[in-house]
């Protein structure tokens, strides 16, 4: 659509360019961290053991895939009672099938000697559907005056598990992610003549053009290195998984979740396909639009993901031969789609 006022549009673009060149402002202008408080409709489950009460709160109550899910554990202990509450660090740590993205904690002691601990986790769901947040294990020691030899013996307290259902990403949201619309600019920018700003900006653009070309070249080299390392990392993880042997029936769910994650992570890095936050159906829809994957590749990928979903969601328990065969199919798919240099480029 043609803007109603080209001068104002150009002014706004140049203002945005100037802000980007300045680095977005000083550290003093950046907003302070916001403390997340539980939503009013948060799922809450309380567990008590003598002088200790642990309340688990999860929100939002009805998240959509891709939303951040918050988990808070509120621990209240009477005076003279100590509580050991281990916590998960962010990164590759997991809480059940949820990945821990962040963690904060706070504690304070009241005037009467009682204490309160708060642990807040930021979690990421692996897929849509029904999930559960597993119980958390706490240890408490009642140091108050007691009779008997059990006065200082640690006691265990397990919180209740929290069931939660994650809604799938809507079709229109996926389309918006694949084809993001260009935002509209506010026509009311200011009164500075756009010709004056344009002349001043041209000099800065000419100086920065060489930098832009250098950055593009560097980005292309990094992309090529990332595609190569995607294959190497995936093969190493498959070898490690294979060395553990076929999973027992009670370990099949976790084993196939890890196998599926290896293939999805490889595709995300090798073919720039957003994989971890999509269901199998949503992911296959995105993968079908990649020019790097042939129809045969898409067929192999569909068969592989269906095997994994049968174990993860349908309760199917394969035998050892079928589990190892599925891992071999994943390795064959990765080998067939790896980045290969042309002979001329390799020689150069």
Keywords:
348 residues; alpha+beta; Immunoglobulin-like; 6-stranded antiparallel sheet; 3-stranded antiparallel sheet; extended; disordered N terminus
Instruction: Give the helix proportion (percent range).
Output: 40-55%
Rg, nearest Å: 27 Å
Distance between the termini: 47 Å
Percentage of β-strand residues: 15-25%
Structural class: alpha+beta
What is the average per-residue confidence, as pLDDT, rounded to a whole number?
75
Any chance you could write out the topology, listing elements then pairs?
Elements: H1 6-21, E1 43-49, E2 52-59, E3 69-77, E4 81-84, E5 94-95, E6 98-109, E7 115-124, E8 129-133, E9 137-142, E10 155-158, E11 162-166, H2 171-178, H3 194-243, H4 252-271, H5 280-287, H6 295-313, H7 320-337, H8 343-347
Characterization of this structure:
This protein is α+β, with helices and mostly antiparallel strands. The chain has 2 domains: 43-168, Immunoglobulin-like (Sandwich); 219-347. It contains 8 helices and 11 strands. The protein has helices at 6-21, 171-178, 194-243, 252-271, 280-287, 295-313, 320-337, 343-347; strands at 43-49, 52-59, 69-77, 81-84, 94-95, 98-109, 115-124, 129-133, 137-142, 155-158, 162-166. The strands form 3 sheets. The chain has a 6-stranded antiparallel β-sheet with strand order 1-2-3-7-6-5, with no helix packed on it. Strand 5 (94-95) and strand 6 form a beta hairpin. It is extended. The model is unreliable at 1-6 and 11-33 (pLDDT under 50).
